[in-house]
Amino acid sequence: MTPTDPGSDFLRHIRYEKRLSHHTLLAYKNDLLQFTEFLAEQHPGTLPPAADHLLIRAWIVHLVESGLNKSTVNRKIATLRAYYGYLLRHQRISADPMQKIVALKQSSRLPTFVEEKPMETLLDDIDFADDFIGLRDKLVLELLYGTGIRLGELLGLKPTDINRFDRTITVLGKRNKHRIIPLVPPLLALIDQYEQQKRVFFDGKADPTALLVSDKGIPAYPVLIQRIVNKYLSLVTTLEKRSPHVLRHSFATHLLSRGADLNAIKDLLGHSSLAATQVYTHTSLEQLKKTYDQAHPKGGKPGES
């Protein structure tokens, strides 16, 4: 392995066997390249397979001192954990140096979400134009909030992913895993209305492979969706963060607050483990405390319990 070719066998493994996304693959490659370059500068002649836990710790210290936040450093640690695990399984190394490495402790951050009332105002009370652009913008918001899908999943939707008979949508999620999400009748009707307007607006010449397209008929792209979400959320909330992922968090939080089963939410979100979904229980508890403090006669009074 050279600084320009960090772990090609490992990268092929995660690409074809683990079926990780191109974005994740690129992150792994860059992390390994950075580690390889660090070793070349600090310990010439030492390649990653020969690095011990002391060298890995030195790199982690270097990353922290360079100003990277803890979540980014922990992602790079996870890359090395996967890399050395691969080397050990294929008998390229005799011991895993990552066994003595622990992730940096991070302060827990609750997901940012929009309250139910502002979301109702946005989707039920604000007027959207009946033309293609107005219908598309509303559909973007309704799909993100009504299904909880990720930005990348939204952009990957095709017209053929809509099953009108079963009232479901098929989503291609992380690790190329498909999941099926139910659609409420009003959302399905909105999709049909949008599709009709799209055909008229572009005279049937919009890209047929993408459900959502830009004003020019090409597949929608991340900046367009982010601009739409930010524009409309700014009408109903003062949250600093107004991204597509905030609508995903809102979807999950509102389901949980209304009594949905945590395992069902996990499946709808496409989480691989329940641990990732359980963060919403903390959010729901915080909301419960806030409601108590605002509404209960004893709420929010110091010295009383």
From TrEMBL:
Residues 109-293 form the Tyr recombinase domain. GO terms for molecular function: DNA binding; tyrosine-based site-specific recombinase activity. InterPro entries: CB, DNA_brk_join_enz, Integrase-like_cat_sf, Integrase_catalytic, Integrase_recombinase_N, Integrase_SAM-like_N, Tyrosine_recombinase_XerC/XerD, Tyrosine_recombinase_XerCD. Residues 1-88 form the Core-binding (CB) domain. Keywords: Cell cycle, Cell division, Chromosome partition, Cytoplasm, DNA integration, DNA recombination, DNA-binding. The active site is at residues 150, 174, 245, 248, 271, 280. The keyword Nucleotide-binding does not apply. GO terms for biological process: cell division; chromosome segregation; DNA transposition. GO terms for cellular component: cytoplasm. It is found in: Cytoplasm. The keyword Cell division applies. Forms a cyclic heterotetrameric complex composed of two molecules of XerC and two molecules of XerD. Site-specific tyrosine recombinase, which acts by catalyzing the cutting and rejoining of the recombining DNA molecules. The XerC-XerD complex is essential to convert dimers of the bacterial chromosome into monomers to permit their segregation at cell division. It also contributes to the segregational stability of plasmids. Belongs to the 'phage' integrase family. XerC subfamily. PANTHER family: PHAGE INTEGRASE-RELATED, TYROSINE RECOMBINASE XERC. This is Tyrosine recombinase XerC. The gene is xerC.
